[in-house]
TrEMBL record:
Record protein name field: Major facilitator superfamily domain containing 9
Domain Major facilitator superfamily (MFS) profile: residue ranges: 1-396
One GO cellular component term: membrane
Superkingdom of origin organism: Eukaryota
Record's keyword annotation contains Nucleotide-binding: no
Family to which the UniProt record says this protein belongs: Belongs to the major facilitator superfamily.
Main subcellular location of this protein, as a coarse class: membrane
CDD domains documented for this protein: MFS_MFSD9
Keywords, comma-separated and alphabetical: Membrane, Transmembrane, Transmembrane helix, Transport
PANTHER family: MAJOR FACILITATOR SUPERFAMILY DOMAIN-CONTAINING PROTEIN 10, MAJOR FACILITATOR SUPERFAMILY DOMAIN-CONTAINING PROTEIN 9
Length: 398
């Protein structure tokens, strides 16, 4: 999954620019995240109802269709059309929900860290292969079709008998729990610790009103950091070329190096969590401060070597922060609705995908360092919010 996607993401800005788009127009047509904004929570809730197996299979097949269309995009209109099937690009979210169903709350940070590490392995070779292919004629289109083939292979693997037995057993347990009313009771107990009970909220209200009433601060931190991190990566390849005359192939090596460290950092989540004695709010705050500082150092970097240094620690801090925010959301809302909660988190991230290209395109009109500089401001806002809210979480025992 991520091997194929990581071949495409660094090349999107180059491809849209080659189609004749200005930076601002490129930002607008790249805002496919607006589709995921409306689909993440729906797909997550849908997976809670119909089961992880069929929902994941559907996501894989539609993602393959989307990247196939991207491989045929020779104009801005076709490029926009190719982004529509990513409405169902939620395979990783469903996998996280499945893992949350299978493990206990105490084991969840360790397992999620390992999952993120395994996911990051895809980013090790993907950018290198994508950067290599783009230096040859038709490289972007070859990368797109390769990505589509990977999603098809994943779908075939997911249909193997061993996967079917494991997932069907888990889906059966989840449906039995929900039929007994466990889903509602667990949500009520979990959220009541924060001073709000789901039973106090009308069932006729949209799920977003219920979620925002009990975890608005976590969702806002996720949004701010998502945009900040996306601004860091949004024009990374183009900025390396303009600031340091670095070729896409070398930029691909740099991204793969950072992804390698991110994969290793996933295995450190468990020990670091134990070091913090499972104090996830404190760990989230410290990782956010570190991420903010590294974005600033990247924006002000006078040489490629400083970019290399910031990339070294940036991958580690973002991996830990991503695991922390997911675990805190599941603690706050209840793991039995993991599909809905993780989907809601992905919807917030999708808002970042909508805003980040627009902000990046506008900021890039002024300077190649504009996007990461704006990211620093947003990350500082996230740090400030955590400093205000964490004492209140501690007072409530959350």
């Amino acid at each position: 999954d991520l091997f194929g996607v990581s071949m495409i993401i660094p090349l999107l800005s180059h491809h849209v620019k080659a189609l004749g788009a200005s930076p601002t127009v490129a930002g607008i047509v790249s805002t496919y995240g607006i589709l995921q904004l409306f689909s993440s929570t729906v797909v997550g809730s849908w997976s809670d109802v119909v089961g992880r197996r069929y929902s994941l299979l559907t996501c894989l097949l539609l993602s393959a269709l989307g990247y196939s269309l991207l491989g045929m995009s020779t104009s801005i209109a076709l490029f926009v059309l190719a982004r529509i099937p990513v409405l169902f690009k939620h395979s990783l979210s469903i996998c996280r929900a499945l893992l949350s169903d299978l493990v206990s709350e105490s084991e969840r940070p360790l397992v999620m860290g390992h999952f993120n590490a395994a996911s990051s392995v895809g980013f090790i070779l993907g950018p290198v292969v994508g950067g290599y292919l783009t230096e040859h004629e038709g490289g972007f289109y070859k990368s797109s079709f390769t990505c589509a083939a990977i999603f098809l292979i994943n779908a075939l693997v997911w249909m193997l008998p061993g996967c079917e037995t494991l997932v069907d057993r888990n889906d059966s347990v989840c449906r039995n729990n929900m039929s007994k009313g466990y889903h509602e009771n667990h949500f009520s107990k979990s959220v009541h610790r924060g001073g709000v009970s789901w039973r106090d909220v009308s069932l006729l209200q949209p799920v977003w009103k219920q979620l925002s009433s009990v975890m608005w601060d976590l969702l806002l931190v996720r949004l701010l950091m998502a945009i900040a991190i996306m601004l860091y990566y949004s024009n990374f390849s183009l900025a390396m070329e303009e600031r340091f005359s670095l070729k896409p192939k070398m930029t691909g090596y740099l991204i793969s190096y950072s992804s390698t460290l991110g994969a290793l950092a996933g295995f450190l989540v468990g020990p670091v969590t134990q070091l913090y004695k499972n104090n996830m709010p404190a760990l989230l705050l410290h990782s956010t401060v570190l991420t903010c500082s590294l974005i600033f150092l990247y924006a002000a970097a006078p040489s490629v070597w400083q970019v290399l240094l910031t990339s070294t620690f940036f991958a580690i801090s973002t991996t830990i922060g991503r695991t922390c925010i997911t675990d805190l959301e599941l603690q706050r809302g209840g793991a039995q609705a993991s599909g809905t909660l993780i989907g809601a988190g992905q919807s917030v991230t999708a808002v970042g995908r909508v805003l980040a290209p627009l902000l990046s395109g506008l900021a890039q009109e002024f300077s190649p360092c504009g996007p990461p500089s704006l990211g620093v401001v947003l990350a500082l806002a996230a740090v400030s919010l955590l400093l205000i809210r964490i004492p209140k979480w501690d007072a409530r025992g959350m």
